[in-house]
From TrEMBL:
Its cofactor is Mg(2+); [2Fe-2S] cluster. The modification N6-carboxylysine is found at K121. The active site is at S473 (proton acceptor). It is an enzyme of class 4 (lyase). This is Dihydroxy-acid dehydratase. SUPFAM superfamilies: IlvD/EDD N-terminal domain-like (SSF143975), LeuD/IlvD-like (SSF52016). Residues 364-554 form the Dihydroxy-acid/6-phosphogluconate dehydratase C-terminal domain. It comes from the Bacteria. Homodimer. Binds 1 [2Fe-2S] cluster per subunit. This cluster acts as a Lewis acid cofactor. Its EC number is 4.2.1.9. InterPro entries: Dihydro-acid_dehy_C, DihydroxyA_deHydtase, DiOHA_6PGluconate_deHydtase_CS, ILV_EDD_C, ILV_EDD_N, IlvD/EDD_N.
Length: 558
């Protein structure tokens, strides 16, 4: 056992003495030691109940002959950190979480790992840390929140409804009483926010990668079904704890990452998944080039639309319709060679055999492969002179035309953009440009849900495009293009734009360009100056020095 390093032999008497202080007995030193990486934190709706959830898991681990050791990771709630300086810390928190997992697991030589994430950066951070440790690992998230209900119309509500409600209130579309009702009803329970936002996207991709049991992405939080899934995950980590076949890198390899991208395109996941999966691929030693993703997007049908792309559908509906593996089963009916069915999963079965057990139960929610929402994926990577290293759009969330041409209205920060949109500076036909918000420029690559929600709430969603070197919340919809690389702080083209420049976007051609001559572009490059922002935080200054751009997953390079 790996844990013999801290518990076997006379030289480890001091180590055992310390372990006995935690309650261990003689017989426990013969058992596998399981790390239980929890992410309990009281301020996050998807995490405030994970202390009790972890008790269920630890109980089951003890019943199955292993010794659990729980430790905790930090977490940032992107919704609460949204629209102010707190968002600077969201993406950097992914690296702290990865480092924490690596540190605790390797410092104490534990045999196996079960991770309990739920929201936003916590899922990819835990995956990245687990890959560095490379021992048998199972993921079991806390589960999604159920959707809220509009007390007036009976329509489904979610967090995005509240953000867009703010924009609607500002232009007089709804009154304060209506906004308060939406606020109070949109998030009715614990769990990760109820749409196909970043958290639920990543928890679903854990199924596609084979590192979580079926249902991980869709079974609702705080239900008996979720608790039983937790017990099953705990039993499974005990079964595989000492089996090297189930080291996470043997499962989460290049094939698994490809399967994740296939699933992502089919279900129209959050644009943040591209950033995180690129980072995960590098930790797995199976790097993906962002340019290769369109080969998947061009050939994968988009069969599931979930809020925000389709506001009436939420994760509970996907669960009832068959779940994530039913989506993959449907996709597999058209053999285009993209899905890798022979890859091992933690269940002991390969993915191809596993998904055969999950049929679509409701073709209104999960479309058939013959009649999908679209014959191309729900995410796309655009290239052109405005994004030579690529940028990302959630094509599933477009509410207007997929081809757009308009005049640039440039803002050098998210705060300036919010002020400009609120004051009416942005009109129909404009392309809002928010720059110097990339990984280095922010630093921290803030999410732009507030600007996009203001645009949607003001009824401009079909008539205005937005491009940024920052990110978007998984709740964002509309013609919103993020992760523009190179970013403005690197001297990228987005930093050279001027008000009035004509920008052309063609999602079906995967292109984004500014209509400027090469001579004009070269002239602007020579004139460009960037002094940088004053960054007071020591941690954010460290992050700024080490972070790479979005086309590399915004990983840190020492």
């Amino acid at each position: 056992m790996r844990s013999d390093m801290i518990k076997k032999g006379y030289t480890r008497a001091p180590h055992r003495s310390l372990l006995r202080a935690t309650g261990l007995k003689d017989e426990d030193f013969e058992k596998p030691f399981i790390g239980v990486a929890n992410s309990f934190i009281e301020i996050i709706p998807g995490h405030f109940f994970l202390d009790k959830f972890a008790e269920i898991i630890k109980d089951e681990i003890r019943k199955n002959g292993c010794v659990p050791f729980e430790f905790n990771c930090i977490g940032v709630d992107d919704g609460i950190a949204m629209g102010h300086s707190g968002m600077l810390y969201s993406l950097p928190s992914r690296e702290i979480i990865a480092n924490s997992i690596e540190t605790v697991m390797n410092a104490h030589c534990l045999d196996a790992l079960i991770c309990i994430p739920n929201c936003d950066k916590i899922v990819p951070g835990m995956i990245m840390g687990a890959l560095r440790v490379n021992i048998p690992t199972v993921f079991i998230s806390g589960g999604p929140m159920r959707a809220g209900v509009d007390q007036d119309s009976g329509e489904a509500l979610d967090l995005n409804s509240v953000f867009e409600g703010v924009g609607a209130y500002e232009v007089g579309k709804i009154d304060e009483k209506k906004l308060k009702m939406i606020e109070c009803e949109a998030c009715p329970s614990g769990g990760s926010c109820s749409g196909m936002f970043t958290a639920n996207s990543m928890n679903s991709l854990c199924e596609a990668m084979g590192i979580a049991l079926p249902g991980n992405g869709t079974i609702l939080a705080l239900t008996p079904e979720r608790e039983e899934l937790a017990r099953a995950a705990a039993r499974r980590i005990c079964e595989i704890a000492l089996d090297e076949k189930y080291k996470i890198k043997n499962i989460l390899n290049k094939k698994a990452i490809k399967n994740a991208f296939v699933c992502d395109m089919a279900m129209g996941g959050s644009s943040n998944t591209i950033l995180h999966m690129l980072a995960i691929s590098r930790e797995a030693g199976a790097s993906f080039n962002i340019k290769d993703l369109n080969d998947i997007s061009k050939n994968i049908a988009h069969v599931a639309k979930v809020a925000p792309s389709l506001p009436s559908v939420h994760m509970e509906d996907i669960a009832k319709a068959g779940g994530i593996l039913a989506i993959l089963n449907e996709i597999s009916k058209r053999d285009n060679g993209l899905l890798e069915p022979d890859n091992l999963t933690i269940t002991g079965e390969n993915l191809g055999d596993l998904i055969k057990k999950y049929e679509v139960k409701d073709y209104k929610i999960i479309k058939s492969i013959d009649k999908p929402f679209s014959h191309t994926g729900g995410l796309a990577i655009l290239f052109g002179n405005l994004a030579q290293q690529g940028c990302v759009i959630k094509a599933a969330g477009i509410v207007g035309e997929r081809k757009f041409s308009g005049k640039a209205v440039c803002f050098n920060s998210q705060d300036a953009a919010i002020a400009g949109i609120t004051s009416g500076k942005v009109k129909k036909g404009d392309v809002v440009v928010i720059r110097y918000e990339g990984p280095k420029g922010g630093p921290g690559m803030q999410e732009m849900l507030s600007p996009t929600s203001l645009i949607m709430g003001r009824g401009l969603g079909a008539d205005v495009a937005l491009i940024t070197d920052g990110r978007f919340s998984g709740a964002t919809r509309g013609l919103s293009i993020g992760h523009v690389s190179p970013e403005a702080a690197e001297g990228g083209m987005i930093g050279l734009l001027k008000d009035g420049d004509i920008i052309e976007i063609d999602v079906d051609k995967f292109s984004i360009n500014v209509l400027l001559s090469d001579d004009e572009i070269q002239k602007r490059k020579k004139e460009w100056k960037y002094e940088g922002k004053e960054v007071k935080s020591r941690w954010l200054r460290q992050y700024q020095k080490l972070v790479t751009n979005a086309s590399n997953g915004a990983i840190l390079e020492a």
